[in-house]
Structures are given as structure tokens and as C-alpha cells.
Design a protein that fits this description.
By secondary structure, the chain is of the alpha+beta class. It is 26% helix and 34% strand. It starts with a strand and ends with a helix.
Amino acid sequence: MTTVKAIVRYPKVESVILVDEQDRPLGAAEKQFAHIKSKLHRAFSIFIFNERGELLLQRRATSKYHSGDLWANTCCGHPRPGERTKKAAQRRLMEEFGFSSVLTRLGHIRYRAEVTRGLTENEYVHIFVGTHRGDISPDPAEIREYRFSSWESVINDVNHRPSDYAPWFRVYLTKNISTLNTALSSFLQ
């Protein structure tokens, strides 16, 4: 496990793409407003694996506006209005971890979960996977620490210590585990 030194930054206003249940764009909204009002919006989640098939996990920075100090998958985010989802995922991976990866889209997960501070994530999430070998330069404003763990140990840990993990990651590994297992098994072969 590697700890990252913190740098305090002031949040910038970001917009998200509001969508319907089929991921068709309906407009845009400020990100925090969408989370306060539980507006369905487009998002992405990235799962990066090393050469041993271990998942790169991040512990979110304490200063994050929700779910700070919780463990989650490699990277999550939202495409900006007019931005393609895969390009947004690549952008965010570079912003958070300082490296790029060829990303493969595995499908999507639709979920709604209460997060900290009275916010609700109501998202149509595009799932991407990739691999990485090499240096990692995380942004301390985003990531407190990171580690690689086997898929099995991650699932086991989430089941035994769910409060250590971000709500969306718990949903992925409980309600959507068969979908993820099927998609990941073909990717990791």
C-alpha cells in the first residue's frame, strides 16, 4: 500500500450529462446539483489490472466532497457535456493516477446509491478495463493511497468490511458481481 501526500485544492464547478434509462442525453446539470437532486446522469468506472491480474484500488482523498477516505475501484468520473465517455475515462485516469492505458468497454451498470453528506448517486455507468505496468503518479487531491489486490481478496474484503468501501463499489461487487465476473474473466484471459 502506498500513501500519497495531500495537497488542498479548491473544487471547480463541473457539469454532467443528464440521461434517460437508455443513456440518451437529456441535457446537462452541475455535478453537485445532480447528486443532491438524484438526477440520472452518465458516469464511468475504470478497473485497471497489473500483470499478475491484481486490481488497482484507490483510497479516496479525505478532502473529496463525498466518500472521502473510502476505498474504491481504480477510477470513476463523469464525461463533460460534449465529451465522449471513453475519452473522459482516459482523461480522468491520467488526472488521478498520472498514467494512460488502452481501455476496453465491458458494458454498463445502472445504479442508485446514497453517498455521504446527503448526496445520491443515480448513474448510468460505463465500465472500462485496462492494464498497467509501470510508474504511478497519483494526484494527492484525489487519492490518499493505493494498492493492488487480487480480485478474490477484494470481493472478500468488501463482504467482510463494507464500510471501508465507497457505496458504488459495494453495489458493483454485490448486486452486479455476476456481470462483472463474466466480463472480467474474458478480459483477464
